[in-house]
Amino acid sequence: MTTTMDKMRKSAPTSDTPSRVRRGGGVMSSTGLYVATGVAAFLFLIPFYILVRNALSTDAEITGENWKIFPTDIQWGNIGELFTDETVPFAQSLWNSAVVATLHTVGVLLVCSLVGYGLARIPYKHANKVFYAVLGTLMVPTAVTFVPSFVLVSSLGWVDTYRGLIIPGLFSGFTCFLFRQYFLGFPKELEEAARMDGLGYWGAYWRVVVPNSLNFFAAMATITFINGWNAFLWPLVIGQDPSSWTVQVALSSYMTNQTVVFHLIFMATAVSILPLVFVFLFLQRWLVQGIAQTGIKG
Predict the structure, then answer these.
(1) Measuring CA to CA, which residue among 110, 117, 124 is closest to residue 172?
(2) What 3-state DSSP class applies to 175?
(3) Which one of 65, 176, 248, 274 has the fewest beta carbons within 10 angstroms of its own beta carbon?
(4) Would you say 176 and 112 are in contact if contact means Cβ atoms under 8 Å apart?
């Protein structure tokens, strides 16, 4: 009997076997994940490689039939040519885009967060109607309001000014909707404690809600800044003088019906995306957390 039991114990799988199998499967899955991530990163970086390669090349090498991985003679002078070109004030356009995108982001966050907080927290019998009206603005095509907005801005004398570039875009129905949905999930206990300390709606919003919602604000700021930096049609119409061009309008000036300056287009594009890269790298941690969260922890 003892011999039979010993044989059964020896033949039975030990507890280490499943763990080894699990560990082996984990290693394989991790390797596959790393390979897939590496391939995706490689494919993602190809356009940036082409951008930098062409930015440091001549027009003949960019459009030539014999493609080379690296240009024969790196044209560092393209950087100086970009900023010394008298026909396109590229340095001024970078400054204009930075001012417009920054003020646009601050204004949108302030206006839309107040609208979202009011719709989510302040009791009002017509709150739902106002909310549906805000959602209704999402269904109106931009082309419908473009001409009336331009006529209004022109009548106010805001053409070729920062006011004309920034103020008409401070309201965003979609951003208001996102803020409302976020504030609906915000813990009411924190606001109730603030009201017990004598704070009103504005005090609770500014001293309690905003400090505990920085992740979400950072996520919205990143998206809004990128949209403001990449805006083209409205700045093209409002910024009629070269001194008020934004970077996207300046980029379009290198491509006309007569000529296309390829090396300056690529160099200007490479320079123009650097601020977006810095903003994303600085805010990426808060961006991921803000998207992942629907409220606050704890």
Answers:
(1) 110
(2) helix
(3) 65
(4) yes
pLDDT tens per residue across span 159-189: 999 999 999 999 999 999 999 999 998 888 8
- Spatial CA neighbour of 168 closest among 115, 108, 217, 247: 108
* Contact criterion met (CB below 8 Å) for 209 and 191: yes
Residue 122 CA to residue 202 CA, distance in Å, equals 10
Judged by average pLDDT, the poorest of 29-33, 112-116, 125-129 is 29-33
Q: Is the pLDDT of residue 21 over 90?
A: no
Nearest CA to 228 out of 161, 178, 157, 168 is that of 168
Is residue 141 left, alpha or beta, with left meaning phi > 0 and alpha meaning psi from -120 to 50?
beta
Q: Alpha helices of 171-213 — where are they, by DSSP H?
A: 173-184, 188-196, 201-204
What does the DSSP 8-state code read for residue 126?
Answer: T
- The pTM assigned to this predicted structure is 0.82
Structure tokens at 166: 């920034």
Burial track 140-165 (b if 16+ CB lie within 10 A, e otherwise): eeeeeeeeebbeebeeeebbebbebb
